[in-house]
Amino acid sequence: MVREMTKLTFFYHKRKDAAVRIGVEVEEDRVLERYIPGQENSDSALLWYVDVRCSTDEEISADSEAVRKFFLKLSTPIQVALKSVANELSVGLDSDIWPNKWGLKNLPQGISGEIVCSATRRITDGELVNVLLTLANEWPELIAGLQPLAAFVN
User: Fold this and answer.
1) Cα–Cα dist 154/143, whole Å
2) What's the CA dihedral at 28, 32, 36, 39 to 10 degrees?
3) CA gap 98, 27 in Å, rounded
4) Is residue 131 part of a domain?
């Protein structure tokens, strides 16, 4: 019997109200998160997003520390890819082709991944490039600083 691949997604979203949400999902269940509030007038529409989407044949539960360990293990190939994408975006892209996707290279056997990002036309030139470079440079610290989500509240 073939085992299904586990899907893990790191996300970094910036909203129109300047709020930022960073986190990790396993099979679309949020496991780790950090939320930075924006302006007083809430507007949850996204300005841009960057996802690092991975699939693995490893059995990874929604345990926050197992998920954190998974993404930390992939730090080098993710950081290299984020810098490469930033370099490519620095010359610009055709805004009719969104979202943009780039495959991750040099991943351990049994793991595949891609970087996916998109932005509205209202962001400043270079903003997404700066975000990608910041993610690349701060990846281990960012992953380590995400907080586990509390148990569901009734």
Assistant:
1) 28
2) 30
3) 23
4) yes
According to DSSP, residue 108 is labeled P
Q: Is residue 82 part of a domain?
A: yes
Let me know if residue 56 belongs to a domain. Answer: yes
User: What does the pLDDT look like over 65-122, one tens digit per residue?
Assistant: 999 999 999 999 999 999 999 998 877 665 566 688 899 999 999 999 999 998 876 6
Domain containing 120 equals 6-148
pTM of the entire structure?
0.89
Q: Is 104 in contact with 77 (CB distance < 8 Å)?
A: yes
- Could you give the CA distance from residue 115 to residue 102 in angstroms, rounded to a whole number? 5
Pairing of strands 100-103, 46-56: unpaired
Q: How many domains are contained in the chain?
A: 1
Scan for tokens 């949020």, then name that residue: 30
Instruction: Please indicate, yes or no, if residue 154 is contained in any of the structural domains.
Output: no
